[in-house]
Amino acid sequence: MKTVISGSNIVTLSKESKNVNYLYKIMDRVGVLLLNLGGPEQLQDVRPFLFNLFSDPEIIRLPFPWLQKPLAWFISTARTNTSQENYRQIGGGSPLRKITEAQGEALEQRLAEIGQEADIYIGMRYWYPFTEEAIARIKRDRLRKLVILPLYPQFSISTSGSSFRVLEEMWEADPMLRQIEYTLIPSWYDHPLYLEAMADLIAQELDKCANPDQIHIFFSAHGVPQSYVEEAGDPYQAEIEACTRLIMKTLNRPNAYTLAYQSRVGPVEWLKPYTEEALQELGEQGVKDLLVVPISFVSEHIETLQEIDIEYREVAEEAGITNFLRVPALNTHPLFINALADLVTHSLQASPVTFDCVTHPKENMKMYPQERWQWGMTTAAEVWNGRLAMIGFLALLIELITGYGPLHYVGLL
Prior knowledge:
porphyrin biosynthesis; 413 residues; four-stranded parallel β-sheet; 16 helices; single chain; globular; heme biosynthesis
């Protein structure tokens, strides 16, 4: 038993009261779950990472769910060598986990500075530490409040939406999780501090040049299939375009700029213009000085370090662009960390945003509901999926056996 004097009152703290105080402390704890894609850290991780990626129905939508795993195995097997070579060019693995951990540490420190104690958790969708691992830690720590913050500024079915769906399924299946007061932050592309951080990075690179106002600013965003926007109502394209305009407004420079979409895979139509085609067009127009801004990425990883820095640099130089520059990813930029901290504190004060607000939104934003899209019940897919499913599966088997076919032609093999 311990006795302390507080003013004119004498308070005796028993062992039991200490336990009560400890319980109150536990109940007041706040957690922040940072969501991201994940990436292979070693070359031997590439194949299983690709399998996890293509096993996600939000990445590749098939008419029959039993096709998902075989196709994921097929694509991951076929693409392993090429992907391993790409990772070899950037040092043998993705730095995404280390950068995300550094972002989490910086966020925890910033929250403490402004009086908000919080425990930070990291959940990756396709590689370690998986979202499921983060949730296991959250349950072990007996949190009562949780902010779920995707490290994707713009919402997409295939990024934040995919992670939210996994989390929703876990919440529905686990009574212990349902005791947690949680809130989601679906997107934050228009947060002023985020915009200031992006503008600051751009300005720093421009000011290194002799004629900064003559540099053409090239925003490159990760693409998604056009059908996500047109048929599923994915707001990603609208948010990317709005984000680009807001960054340029915050930057307040006279530079011309272009927005394009990278990382296209397969023969289907993705959001346009494609980055490689836009670079070629700018070269034909006589642009010589180009500053690339990775707008949908907050961390350095394969799409920035290899795809932009190596592949697109070659495309630009072949097109006649002689001065190819790139803005670094935000990583732990102080303004960016301040933005994340502000998002967390405001979300704790606001009304909670729950899974049903995001995964079951208004009618014209359908989020690819599983029970319908598995059977192709959309305007376009309803007619074609049933007819093409078996033909496509047979063609896939033939191509596996012969080594020839359209998948080889478009680069999936």
